[in-house]
Amino acid sequence: MKKFVALFIALVMMLACVSALAEKVGVSMPTQDLQRWVQDGENMKKELEENGYEVMLTYAANNVATQVADIENMITNGCKVLVVASIDGGALGDVLAKAKENGILVIAYDRLLMGTDAVDYYATFDNYKVGEIQADFIIQKLELDADDGKTYRMEVFAGSPDDNNALFFYNGAMDALKPYIEAGKLVVPSGETEFQTCAILGWGTDDAQARMDNLLAKAYTDKTFPDLVLSPNDSLAMGIANSLEAAGCPLESFPVITGQDCDKANMKNIIAGKQSMSVFKDTRTLAAKVVEMVNAYLLEDEVPINDTETYDNGVKIVPSFLCDPVFADINNYTELLIDSGYYTLEDLGL
Ligand code: BGC
């Protein structure tokens, strides 16, 4: 009898748990064009489902109106939590206000939601640190601290101005590189170093390629090439590499090119010597953190955060969890990406 009662209690507790967790979560991703967002979406769906949630996952083809419609749908369908990686962080105010009216928890995923009080939490990688890591890599690689009289030609790219992350990436890198520009160790032949001048709206590979073509035509008429190109992410790094290749830059003269996301195509470029590094933001880590946040909120536990100062969206400082980025290059990618099960050798064409 005792055994039966214990079993019964365990069953009731299990059922209570399941019914507490069987909530609907909406995950709105910006686009399927970039590998990272597809992985982010898939990882999150898998993790959330494993935790017993029903998941509505959408990709908005980089179209703001589509993302608004996706989120409206999630609200209508009774989602209790929304996880949003925005296309334009400042363009979702109205639909998020509606979510708030409906008592829905809103978590900004990777990109901050701007100008709204309807965002509750922000989960991301430390975006300023991403830029710092890129700058540190450049400083080490070109030995910029050596007193050897050498100077290097650099060009600067920045991300999409409608993405709050882009300025963090830029500042993280440029705060570290500016002293070398001021000291004349780094020279920028195009003269273009300001964020707005270097920014690529929409993060497009083709647009980055077109800007690099222009820079080469304008400032490298002697058929030489830059020694380094600061690129905030992989989609731009790909365009930059494509431009250099099309302009006939020999492999041995390829500049140091930075990146972010460790996209498969870019890892292949790293292996081929056409990109130098890529900041690795393990999408499994971020997805797992968001699931932890969702669980904590729905079970009325304390939601994990580790930053309450950095991310001001213009209306409030959004409590955030910042994961730690690292970088991959030719020397450590096997350990970081293959041994950890992130990619298979075939993924990288090996
Ligand atoms: C993300 C980067 C990504 C870029 C372009 C940024 O908000 O943090 O990882 O490369 O968007 O999609």
Question: What features would you describe in this structure?
Answer:
The structure is a single chain. A 6-stranded parallel beta sheet has the order 2-1-3-4-5-11, sandwiched between helices. A 4-stranded parallel beta sheet has the order 7-6-8-9, with helices on both faces. The longest helix has 20 residues, at 2-21. Helices cover 44% and strands 14% of the residues. The radius of gyration is 23 Å and the shape is elongated. The protein is built from 12 helices and 12 strands. With 350 residues, it is an alpha/beta fold. It starts with a helix and ends in a 12-residue tail after the last helix. The structure holds beta-D-glucopyranose (BGC).
Shape: elongated
In CATH, the topology of the largest domain is named Rossmann fold
CATH architecture of the largest domain: 3-Layer(aba) Sandwich
CATH class of the largest domain: Alpha Beta
What fraction, in percent, of the residue positions are helical? Answer: 40-55%
Terminus-to-terminus distance: 61 Å
Q: How many helix segments?
A: 12
- Major sheet details: 6 strands, parallel
Parts with pLDDT < 50 across at least 5 consecutive residues:
17-21
Ligand list: beta-D-glucopyranose
